[in-house]
Amino acid sequence: MVQLRYFEPAPAARPHISCLYSFSTPFAMTDMLRAEVPNLRIFLKGGVTVTRAGERRTYRAPVILLCGPTMNAGTIEMWPDTTLIGASILPAGWHACFGLDASEMTNRFEDCEGIAPVLLKSVLDAMQEASTPEVAIAYLEHALVRLGAQREARQQPFIDAASIWLATGNISQVDNLLAEADLSQRQVERLCHRYFGGSPKRLQRKFRTLRANNALVWNDLTDWRDAAGEDYYDQSHFIRDFKEFIGFTPKQFSNEYRALMRSALVLRRTIQHVHPISLVA
């Protein structure tokens, strides 16, 4: 049977990690990937084929994939007998752990060889020998805490302000972020690319669509207007963004994919989320 579990990060890891998770499937399966925040995914068994922005890549376990922030939907094809351990990386954690601008990895999935520090590769062998997902999760979390201690985000006040702006449904205008951060438009553009992987307007569209997608599941909604709130001009506007960032229209999502997506989103709510964007994305 397919197994998906979420784990809360330890206090020492919370500035850098929003959640950790384990996934395993005994059979091949294909699913949509909605637009995401960065992730580190360690495939211990099996393999995966990922299609993003028209590019299709295949990876065979054991492999460590550094997955940058994504700005549109994609597909993921799991091989039979696949097991992975993952971590959802927060903006400050991306910079602290890997020393990269988020925009360098936007819409990219890359083998960590040549990107990630040696520490992660040394953890891979230990994770493969782990007796339970909890043990493997602990190895990964410890490694990320050590990596995150190497650097501090220099723009933490901006990261905090932008995270709240993206996660809060009643903030819809870029001008709100400019005022809150007390920075020029050019500075905000640069920092959004560095820490979040895209322009403020693109990020605004992405996160409001993710919030609407979550609302459809968590609140058991059937009317698109209830999920969209006041953030969309009309139904066609909502459908266009939903298809771009979630991968299908709201009707397709409700009729065909809702049960699978509901399972993942409901499980995410079983753990505590401290960071503003942790539960949204």
Automatic annotation (TrEMBL):
User: A Pfam family in this protein?
Assistant: HTH_18
Q: Name one GO molecular function term.
A: DNA-binding transcription factor activity
On whether DNA-binding is a keyword of this UniProt record, the answer is: yes
| Domain HTH araC/xylS-type positions | 174-256
Keyword set, alphabetical order: DNA-binding, Transcription, Transcription regulation
* Residues annotated as signal peptide: none
InterPro entries reported in the protein's UniProt record: AraC_XylS_family_regulators (IPR050204), Homeodomain-like_sf (IPR009057), HTH_AraC (IPR018060)
Ranges in coiled-coil conformation: none
The record's listing under PROSITE patterns reads: HTH_ARAC_FAMILY_2
PANTHER family in UniProt:
HTH-TYPE TRANSCRIPTIONAL ACTIVATOR RHAS (PTHR46796:SF13), HTH-TYPE TRANSCRIPTIONAL ACTIVATOR RHAS-RELATED (PTHR46796)
What is this protein's name? AraC family transcriptional regulator
Its organism's taxonomic lineage begins at: Bacteria, Pseudomonadati, Pseudomonadota, Alphaproteobacteria, Parvularculales
